[in-house]
């Protein structure tokens, strides 16, 4: 039973990474992001790291005999295409803070799977670095607050 719970938690972590707002904005980039080099660079780094982390979680799920469930992007993401870079970065920061909290909560639940828990905690650390990079866009003046 613990194995099923571990697979469920890993799938949730997988979906958080695979269907994140940065992943969506990279998959369907608004012109404003595409034309803003600093924001595009930060977004690309986040997506690259999240894709590698999602692959790691997928491998763990498969190794445990589970099935990877990719989920879907939230429908409200489609409403972000005509908004300013400033607003998009603000949304990315807010979503990243929620993303970190969700990943921390899921990592805490992986007490019976130490390897998976370590991977989840590593993902949290990476996500905190991404949050710092997003905030730096604002403090460096690349985008307005």
Number of individual domains = 1
* Low-confidence regions: none
Helix content: over 70%
From the helix content, strand content and strand pairing, which structural class follows? mainly alpha
Q: Compute the separation of the termini in Å.
A: 47 Å
According to CATH, what is the topology? Answer: Ferritin
Report Rg.
Answer: 16 Å
What is the number of beta strands?
0
CATH class: Mainly Alpha
**What would you say the CATH architecture is?**
Up-down Bundle
Mean pLDDT reading:
93
Number of helices: 6
For the biggest sheet, the summary is: none
Shape: elongated
The CATH homologous superfamily name equals Ferritin, core subunit, four-helix bundle
Q: Please indicate the percent range of residues in DSSP E strands (runs of 2 or more).
A: under 5%
Q: Write the H/E string, N to C.
A: HHHHHH
In short:
The protein has 145 residues and is mainly α. The chain has one domain: Up-down Bundle (Ferritin), CATH 1.20.1260.
Characterise the protein shown here.
The structure is a single chain. This protein is mostly helical and 145 residues long. The protein has a single domain (2-139), classed as Up-down Bundle (Ferritin). Helix content is 72%, strand content 0%. It has six helices and no strands. The chain has helices spanning 2-18, 21-27, 31-34, 37-63, 85-108, 114-139. Helix 2 (21-27) packs across helix 4. The longest helix is centred in the middle third of the chain and has 27 residues, at 37-63. The relative contact order is 0.19.
